Structures are given as C-alpha cells and as structure tokens.
Amino acid sequence: MNGAPVPLLWLCGPSGVGKSTVGCEIFSQLERAGVPVGYVDLDQVGLCYPAPADDPGNHRVKSRGLGAVWPAHRDAGVRCLVVSGGVETADQVRAYAGQVPDAAVTLMRLRAGHRVLVERFLGRGWRPDLLDEVVRDADELERGKLPGPCVDTDGLPVPEVARLVRERAGGWPRHDAATLDPAPLDPAPLDPATLGSAPLDPMPPHEAPTGEASTGETALREGGHDGVRPGSTPVLWVCRPPAVGKSTVGYEIFTQVNGSGVKAAYVDLAQIGFCRPAPAGDPGNHRLKARNLGALWPMYRDAGARCLVVTGAVHRPETVRAYADAVPGTALTLCRLHAGPAELARRVLLRGAGGGPTIPGKALKGWPEDALLRFAERAAREAAELERVGLGDLCVDTDGRTVEEVAGLVRARAGGWPA
C-alpha cells in the first residue's frame, strides 16, 4: 500500500473490562462522522480450538487472523482500524503488529478495579467459573509493562471512556477528531417503514466461474449433507432471521465439536464485516465478508481445524454461492433456523433487558420497548420471507427448545455433522 501507514488503535485489557464495547463505540463515532473505518475483535478472528498447549491464549492464530482480514479492510479504503483483544506481553504485541506492517499501531490498555471488573464480568452471564482467573490476569497486567498508555474505566459511561481513549491516543485517528459526535447510537432508525423498504439481500448476482463448480457450490445444488464428497472438509452454516439465535446455536455446535476433541473453527460473518461505509451496491458488505472468510479458512485449516461452523445472515442462493466459492474444497450445508413471531418478540425483548450473548455490533440492551418491538416485527417479516423462499438444505424449528437441544438437532439432521 502506498502512502502513510493506516492508524490502528488496539484496545487491550482483562476479560470483561469493556474492550469490545468501547471499540464498537469508537467505530460507531467515526462511522457517524463519515470517516471510513473498520473494526476487528481479535477473539472473532481466532476461534480455532482446542488451542495448543504452548499457546493457550491462541495468540498465534489470532495474530494470523488479524493479518488475514486486514488486506480486505485496507483495500476497502479504511482510513483507520479499531481493534480489541487481550494481550499479555510486549512480544505478543510485536507479533500482532508484524501482521499489519502497513499500519501505525497505538496500544491502549483499559483497566478497572476489582469490584467493577467482577460486576462487569458476571454481568455478561458467561463462564462465571473463570472469575478468579480474570482477576488474576488483571493483577498481572497491572504489574506488567505493556507499551502504551492506560485508561481507568471505573465509574465512566462508555462514550466517556471512548473520548478519553482517543484523547490520550493523541486525538486518534487525527481525522477531524474535534467534529466527531460522541453521542451513543440511536435506535430510532428502526422505523418499520424504513426497514420494510430495504431489500433483504441486495448483493449483485454472483458470476459463477467457468469450468467445474466448486465442492461447496455442488453441495448446495445436490442438497446439503447428502452432497458431501468423501475427503472434503465439512462446513455448517447456520443462518437467520435476526434474533433467532443463530450465533448462540452456531457457537454451541462449535463448542460441542471441539469439546469432543475435534479441532474446529468458527466464523460469525457479521464479525468480519465491520467496515464503513459499505459499498452502495453491497450494503450487507457480503463481498468483504466472503473475502475475509476465504482468507481465514486456510489459516484455520493450517492450524489443524477439521471442520468449520459459520453463522450469518443470507437470503438469496447467489449470495450463498459467493461464500461457498470463497472456501473451495469444502462441503457446505446450509441450515436455516426458524422461530415464530411470538418467540422472536420474546427473544428480542429479553436481549433488550440485557439477556443473551454480548457480541460486538449486536447489542439491543437498553433500547426502548417500541424500538425492540419494531425490530421483532422486522425479524418476523424476514422469517416469513425465508420460509417462502425455502433457502437452505434443512430447517430446524427453535420454538420451545434449549440451545443445546437445537444444536443437537441441527447436527443430527445434518447427518451427524461433522461426521
């Protein structure tokens, strides 16, 4: 890349301190200000487990994951990149920075006192058994000598932490920084009329390559798991409507598989597509996501992954084929999850109250009830459209079932996936 290095702001700190939340806030501020910006959560580009014994933090995979998705963001024209992810040593920082040699890296550590850190971590509702380890890691970071400044987050709202981070990073990224609007995201754009008028999946039609079709495309035509060829790598894609639980179910499948001793990889497509502004002809950023999926999979495969779980929104067969062609040599099974309107509304309201997983870019917590209900109505309309189109090799109804039950049912209906 010609020209000056691209500014990269890396937020680090202990688990639960708010790295992803603050990173998303800075990304959103810059997006609203019209600055071309990208965001990468390092955990989301390193989900390939079990991790090796000599690298339990999976830093080798995560650093390579950052390097894998950086070119697509850079080529999309971002003027700055926000990254969040834990790191413990200066050597690890150098390893990550070596993957983005044309970026100017600024490391910023977030900290919180024990009481605040415990409250935040437990508030996530995930792995409370790790709390003691989290506190120990936080204390170790306090004793360490990571390069870069530190921001104390105790008692501060997220926008204020974001402001302090950028201020202490020299007005990062120094692109009209004084004009940026620090206000939190406003859910008001969730107007039913606006949502209803937007095309579901406006990616331009995919141009199939000449010659023999890819394994993934053949599997799509021949029918999911029935089309898997011997020796091809199994890929399971769990798709939406919104709030149906695709990320939760997909991650549960991933956890079940690697828990059985099979090394598996997981990609949430939404998490590898944070790049704004999106192209006018591809508002879903499918081209960027497909390119990043294609860059991540060989890295995961080389790290020992024997299968891949993917979650993400899709509505049209040509979009599915574009993703399938990004991972040649694989056998793709597309599973559509279904939930009725009442169940979708219940789940949306639950997330609005703070329930469900905390995933960058997917937070509904704190939204007004009327906005949540409009979101639920949109999800129901998209569910009905998916039912009409019949997209997918199989469909699993999630109503009245636990996440574990749905995950088990998906795998069973996919022929005992990844068998």
UniProtKB/TrEMBL annotation:
Top-level taxon in the UniProt lineage: Bacteria
Region Disordered, residue ranges: 171-224
InterPro entries: P-loop_NTPase
Name this protein carries in UniProt: Adenylyl-sulfate kinase
Species name: Rugosimonospora acidiphila
